[in-house]
Amino acid sequence: MKGLDLTAEEVAGLAARHPALMRPALRDRVGGPILALALLGLFVFGLWDLDISPARLAGGTVTLVRFLALMVPPDPLGHAVLFVQALGETLAISLLGTLTAAVLAFPAGLVASRNVVANPVIHHVARRIFDVIRSIDVLVWALVWIGVVGLGPFAGVLAIACSDFGALGKLFSETVETTGHRAREGVRAAGGGAIDEVRFGLLPQVLPVIAGQALYFFESNVRAAAIIGIVGAGGIGLHLYEAIRTLEWREVSFLVLMVLVSVALIDTVSSRLRAAMRG
Amino acid sequence: MTPGRDAPASPSAVVLLPDDRLGALRRGYDAVGNRRRLKLLAGLAVLVLLAGVSARIAEIDPVTMWLKFGGFTSYFDRLATLDSGARVWTDPVEWFWGLKKWSLLLGQTLLMAYVGTLWGAVFAAVLCFAASRTTRRDGRVRFAALRFLEFCRTVPVLVFALIFVVAFGLGALPGVLALAVHTAGSLGKLFTEVVENADGNPAEGVRASGGSGIQAIRFGVLPQVLSSFASYTLLRFEINLRDATVMGFVGAGGIGEELLVAIRRFYYSDVSAMLVLIVLTVVALDLMTERLRGRLFPGEAR
Which of A255, B6, B27, B103 has its CA 20 to 30 A from that of B61? Predict the structure, then answer.
């Protein structure tokens, strides 16, 4: 490293003038490496405990590369119509699931917001309910709903609606809590009641934001809806599962491409919509 | 209707416009309002139409829904009932009879999430410097890195797991790899944005005093972005734990397989016991990471 050529005295002088910079506290110097070592130690323990060996990794990678080679060119192998129908079903599940979740989560999110319902007990109970629902994966919800309404896309819609209810409810209530109180005070000062306060003082601030959040969830739910077919809750997942199990790799790559393209399209449309809602 | 619009203003505080000019303003205001309302209605109409089409495709039948809703509540009723017919909470020992086995599996799930997250985060941290505009001038490398990250995060994590199970064999390995690949994709994007938003002056300073590109990243960029990296990684850890709980559904390790078997064979009290354990673990990790993230950024409230 060339650069500044300092003499030893100059360096010593700098060290004397800025002791804190040249000689950081022991805690700062030791803390970082110890934390890094601990993280690394747990990582190595995990590799050992989970039976992840270089030999298995290498062997599997060779197999994986062979599969990748078998994936080109992507080809529906005569099932194109079936796959397109399944993709439509996936999009439908995602849309309805997100819509149901958003419609239900909106009032629930209001109830869970500190600045709408002042009662701390209600606020906390609602938040904890969201947390519990949120911490159960969508596939588990799908299995539960299959037990109730049977196999098929309907169970998928309900599963996505359930798991998103928790996530959106939490997000909505956080959004409502970040709003300013000026507009609501204005409404109250002009003689509005509690309902007017929410309708004119709160909703105009939060609606565009939560509509954007719901749109974003729709997009990520397309991915969730693409896998719930694995357990039998409708959509393209079932075909994907079958194709992988029967090692029809060209079908697999075709199906994955279908999902990727539709996610990309929805992404483009929804980011435009979001921008329009903000403006 | 805007409250107070028609209220008489006191003449001293508000300058009242003459009626003709006020009328013009009022018409303009109404026109804007009407246009917005029309747009909103059109949007709602499109949404309802789409929902209707979707409902047909997804074979949704409100009548079945209504009839089956009793099934939903009775499902939860069965979840809360032991084989003996008693409520689960009256006999916690019987309810959590498999606590030792389930805790071990849950521990394995946690470890999978941890290893997958760290692995993916390291990948993401390397790739993000290749993908960000400020550290990599070469457009082609950047494009390739960005597309690769996009691929990794758009393919659902369970699809990776399914493919990896075939390639690597059953067990935790394919699950960890799937989590790592997906994590690399989603964190890589976030990390790239963090790096692009970092102040460029320190890196420039390092380069001006003779440092190499690597040194510029190490001393000029990394100190600025490390806490954001850690914060996003913690957030991802929590998401990955949730994903790891279902990896077992496709044979990729963790508690999922046990859960799937219990659900499929209608061992209701086992299902609820495992769900309780999963929820407790996820919520505990959630609270812990939130606190850690709070310590990373003491200035912010959250």
Answer: A255
Q: Which pair of structure tokens corresponds to residue A19?
A: 């002791």
Q: Which amino acid is at A27?
A: R
**Closest to B289 measured CA to CA, from B226, B238, B229, B225:** B238
Taking each helix axis from N to C end, the angle separating A237-245 and B157-168, rounded to the nearest 10 degrees, works out to 10
Closest residue by Cα to residue B301 from A171, A32, A177: A177
User: Has the ipTM of the complex gone over 0.85?
Assistant: no
Interfacial B residues in 75-104 facing A (CB < 8 Å) = 75
Q: Per-residue pLDDT for B227 more than 90?
A: no
Sign of CA dihedral A264, B247, A153, A207: negative
Q: How confident is the model at residue B13 (pLDDT cuts 50, 70, 90)?
A: low
A145 contact residues in B (CB cutoff 8 A): 72
In tens, the pLDDT along A60-119 reads 999 999 999 999 888 888 888 999 999 999 999 999 999 999 999 999 998 888 888 878
What mean pLDDT is predicted for residues A221-240? 90
The residues in B 215-244 lying below 8 A from A, measured between CB atoms, are: 215, 242-243
Rg from Cα positions in chain A: 27
Q: Does B288 touch chain A (CB under 8 A)?
A: no
Tell whether omega for the bond before A73 is within 30 degrees of 0, i.e. cis.
Answer: yes
**Which amino acid, one-letter code, is at B70?**
G
Q: Is residue B274 a contact partner of residue B258, using CB atoms and an 8 Å limit?
A: yes
The neighbouring-strand residues paired with B81 are: B87
Q: At residue B3, does pLDDT exceed 50?
A: no
Quick check: helix, strand or coil at residue B89?
helix
φ/ψ bin of B4: left (φ > 0), alpha (ψ from -120 to 50), beta (otherwise):
left
B97-296 belongs to CATH 1.10.3720.10? yes
pLDDT for the residue numbered A198: 84
Distance CA B105, CA B277 (A): 11
Domain boundaries, chain B: 97-296
Q: How many distinct helices (H) and strands (E) make up chain B?
A: 12, 0
Nearest Cα to B174, choosing from B159, B196, B189? B159
Q: Looking at residues B268-287, what average pLDDT do you find?
A: 92
